[in-house]
Amino acid sequence: MAFIRKIKTASGATAVQIAHKEYGRIVRIDHIGSAHTGEELKTLLGIAKERLHGPQLSLLPETIPPLKIRLKQPVSRLLLQVLTEQYDHLGFNELKDDVFTWLCLARIVEPTSKLDSLRVLRELGVSKLRKNQLYRCLGRVIAQDYRSTIGKKCFGHARAGGISLMLYDVTSLYFETQEEDDYRKPGLSKERRLEPQIIIGLLADQTGFPLGIHSFEGNTAETATILPVMESFKKQHRLKDITVVADAAMLSRKNLEALTSAGYTYVVGSRLNKIPYDIAEYRKTKELSDNQILTTQLEGGQRIIYQYREKRAAVDRHNIEKQIIKAEKILSGKITAKRAKFLSVKTKEMRLNKALIEKAKALAGIKGYVTNLAVPDEQAINYYHQLWHVEHSFRMSKSDLKARPIFLRKRDSIEAHLTIVFASLAIERTIESHTGISIKRFVNILRPIRSGIVSINGINYPAEAEIPAEVKQLLRRLPAGH
Questions:
Q1: 23, 119, 134, 261: most buried, per Cβ within 10 A?
Q2: Position with higher pLDDT, 466 vs 482
Q3: 453: β partners
């Protein structure tokens, strides 16, 4: 026979059990659960009676209703907690603005419009936020200069790990409108767009961790952005010696003279528009070998470092052949394009530009670097190659964070949006550097782990998420600890 019994536990709870007895001895006990309140005890007794009687008919009518279990309000609370801890770890909580915090975290989880961020935040367990609070927050970001505070915190975080270089790059963000103003203007677009745009300059340390973000009018030349950004950063953090690494887009004689006059050391990519004299002279007697370096000294302590790499040459030659094939197809009428890299067009006549092809082949595999830094050539080249970190950060800000503020029109709102992107990018880079996985994958792992409310026969119980062992191991890598 079987019967239901209640047992007091050492913690003071009431355990509900089904005891099975044979020949006067209990041979098996099924533990139903432990109740801490009268309502919980009532529910557990109902479960025990349901299990005890099963489908068989009772001699007496049962008054216990069937068990009804409902899941209510499932949210990704773990993901919100982890991202908040990283936000706090970087010191951004000094702003004491919960709305700003939530906007930053929502951008990491799912980049979307400010209004749609309310939906993302509800999925994370933030349900009290309203639309007007979002837009008031954007005003506070500008009025209280949140970007300055975030910049100081990012600098302190990077300095603790050692800053040896400043990486700088620029990009353009376009707006889906034909109406330009004093800020959003048509200009040279990397995406070859004709719409009004703005220019964004991102400053990062040698690991790609963001240190500053600046915006400029859409028709600003890229070369005109680097000095204002560096001077602002130098003044804000009271620095003296700074080495900046930048792409060839920053290279101009006027630019480098200004950097030198301001006391900066630099490594900047060099555009090779013609075959360098020293390389042409060397090739008169010898062929370049893999990883070979030739240096040309310039005035004012500058030098150009040329490096030949066989792997780069193979890629360059492959691309040259593709461009030649395209040009030949245009000439033969197989495709209708009117432009190609090695195609010369004079009035109505088109022909292959053989001189340009020969020059491209001669430059295959050669990369130039301009520097005034007193370090070995190989070290200067290695410094330049760190630029992929800031390029990765730009890709993150334009894809993972969708930095393009297409729904904002006023400059203050756009600047506030970029400040949110700046803070979010710092959190992303921190998580990626410690976990070794992309932020997209990190979010995809944690987002499905949900907690919420379970209703059993109308009584609500909090249900915490069950965290898999491999996720716990992943979270232990983060600096805040879990």
A1: 134
A2: 466
A3: 72, 462
